[in-house]
Amino acid sequence: MAFSSHVYTCARSTDVDVLDRDLRRSPAIARGKIGLTVLWNRPSASEAYADEIEAASAETLIFAHCDVYFPEGWFERLEWEMARLTLLDPDWAVAAVIGVTTASEFIGRAWDSSLAPLFAKTGGMFGNALAAPARIASCDEMVIIIRNATGVRFDRKLPGFHLYGTDIVLEAERLGRTAYALDMPLIHNAKAQLNLGPDYVEAYQYMVRKWQPRLPVPTTCGVLTANPLVLPFRRLKIRYKALCRPSTYSTERLSDPAVKAEELGMYRMLATPVESAESAAPSTAAQAPSEAAMSALPHSAGVLPEPPRPDAPKAVEAHATTSLVGAGGRYRVRALHSRAEIEPLRAFWNACDPGRDCDLDFYLFVSEHIDSCLRPHVLVLLEGETPRALLAGRIDIVKTPVKAGYFTVPVPALKILRIVHGGILGELDGERASLLVSSIIATLDDGTADAAMLESAEIDSPLVECARAAPSWLCSDRLLQPTVHRMRDMSGAAGSFQSQLSSHARYQQRQRVAKFKRTFDDVRIERFHSPDDLPELLAAAESIANKSYQRGLGVGFSRTPFVEARLEFEAQKGWIRGFVLYFDNSPRAFWIGSLHNNVFVSNYLAFDPSYSDYSPGMYLLLIAMDEIWADEPALQRFDFGIGDAFYKERLSNRCVEETPVYIFAPRLKPVAVNILRSTVGGVSRSIQRSEKLAPYLKKMKRWLRRRAVERA
């Protein structure tokens, strides 16, 4: 499989020497094997590149900085990587040398002259080799690779020369395409940028306006967010580095990047893997990789596993199983870190009758597919060799939410041991809970994680009590935020679902039905219960969610690759139940849930806000719940999920109070996040509880929701 390629770069008249020294000196370009187009003195890189794509005939378009040097063998390696990627994911549209995952993790590798002092131990190389193409949320603009046929295009309106890498990845996502980082090391002969200029601010503000519903988005320069404090903080950080840490950057450039590439052995790094061990020398002819070569790695210095597709599990690091023995030796806790270690627990796990969120297959699926997850982490409490209880968790790289109302305060990402919702299985008394919490604290002390979180534990459980009491004052959770978890218990119920509601609730539903009949002729509800139904369900749900206030707030349903893969998994299991209300010639409301072990779990609910006078959400809910109850006479309950809402209060007859609980490691960054979280949360809570401010807060909440709908 061969790909025709062409390189484009933007340059100013003053960049002639830089262009000749770096990009034009690249062997394949210097020999004329790869074409190069220089776009001189353009006001915007994104606009210039958008114009060139329209006239381009090459299959692969490469957009590079003029101070990039492509070493010998780079383009041959590119063909091999693209062939491999196309086998893994035919829908890919964008690739890059350096990218950022949704967990704000940098992936890929390169030599950058501005960063060389910071990576002296590796000769100036930063990053690690990639075992496989890795999904990214944004990319560095030093090199961007686009498949011409995919239709992904740069935005002509994006000003200046910043953030067009992030924009093109988001454009690909909007078209249902994917973006990846490839193992393609090169030389970036750049000077350190020691200020945040007005051109960057202009591009940043444009991106915030354009992608408001999609924010936050991690980039190579920090998180793209609507939070107004981010840019001032970033400017201070850059100035601090410029003034106080001169040993961490360089403003000098190489006189001959070819010498550095040879010194680093980049030709060997770029050698395409081959099936035969006889060919130890680097291959000069690119070839489509066979199945045997798919997993081969050239000169691998390390592995950063990311899923090549949302439906293909990513590799999991091997970790030694660890144990903690309790006082008296009756119990011990083992930490399990891989599918192979966890699978022997299946019989005990299933005997605990877990909910959907902690079904073993669902738990493993999420752990292996969600971008932020590094690996599973299960703590099992044993009596002898018999499991008595367990905590199902995973190690995530995420940001601890620090919020004042709808506003998010920027904090650094932490490695968090997350005990998933419903992940507390087995019988727990005070002794067992104490030993499990001690095991969590040991995990934090040894550096495996920066913090731990019980995602939603019942507030009066012994585990919550121990999690609050065991850590030191600085490391314990000072800000419990209880939430109501509402359900509708159906045990012993008879008759239709609606017959169990109050007479007033039944009257209101009759009024809704009559209003729909008077106003619309084409009212119907479509049911989606099988894998074949999924594409239509997803398309309808996205068209509705795109207009909802939840989308404006960045919550609720979003047709991301992970959500698609997750719902496909549930459909294959036979759990999925989807309902879409159509009227006025379009889908106007949807409800998606999962039927698991005789419990219906609500996943996503949204409606078109322009028809809110008709209460389409409640109209759909009551009809759908009637049908589910009629079809599933063994149904035990409807689970409306975490978080409260008016409709949940109206339809539920049982509730429990749950809360997330954090434990922070005794290190500077985690403790600082805990202090900030406690301070902001405490002030926010005091304001919310103020009787004098209550009317104003309600008005602000309504205003923010209206703004969210407008943004959506």
When the domains are counted, the total is 3
Low-confidence stretches: 274-321
* Cα separation of the termini: 42 Å
CATH class assignment of the largest domain: Alpha Beta
What does this structure look like?
The structure is a single chain. The chain is an alpha+beta fold and 712 residues long. It has 3 domains: 5-269, Spore Coat Polysaccharide Biosynthesis Protein SpsA, Chain A (Alpha-Beta Complex); 322-486 and 660-692, Aminopeptidase (3-Layer(aba) Sandwich); 497-635, 3-Layer(aba) Sandwich (Aminopeptidase). Helix content is 34%, strand content 25%. It is built from 22 helices and 31 strands. It has a 13-stranded mixed beta sheet with strand order 17-18-19-20-23-24-31-25-30-29-28-27-26, with helices on both faces. A 7-stranded mixed beta sheet has the order 2-1-3-12-5-13-10, with helices on one face. Strand 23 (413-426), helix 13 (430-445) and strand 24 (451-458) form a beta-alpha-beta unit. It is globular. Residues 274-321 have low confidence and may be disordered.
Secondary-structure map with pairings?
Elements: E1 5-11, H1 16-21, H2 27-30, E2 35-40, H3 45-55, E3 60-64, E4 68-69, H4 74-88, E5 92-96, E6 99-100, E7 106-107, E8 109-112, E9 125-127, E10 134-135, E11 138-139, E12 143-147, H5 164-174, E13 178-181, E14 187-188, H6 198-210, E15 217-219, E16 222-224, H7 230-244, H8 257-264, H9 266-269, E17 322-325, E18 331-336, H10 339-342, H11 346-351, H12 360-369, E19 373-383, E20 386-399, E21 403-404, E22 407-408, E23 413-426, H13 430-445, E24 451-458, H14 462-469, E25 483-489, H15 503-519, E26 524-528, H16 534-545, H17 549-553, H18 561-573, E27 576-583, E28 586-596, E29 599-607, H19 616-631, E30 637-642, H20 646-651, E31 654-664, H21 668-689, H22 694-711
Parallel strand pairs: 1-2, 1-3, 5-13, 8-14, 23-24, 29-30
Antiparallel strand pairs: 3-12, 4-14, 5-12, 6-7, 6-11, 8-9, 10-13, 15-16, 17-18, 18-19, 19-20, 20-23, 21-22, 24-31, 25-30, 25-31, 26-27, 27-28, 28-29
Helix pairs in contact: 12-18, 13-14
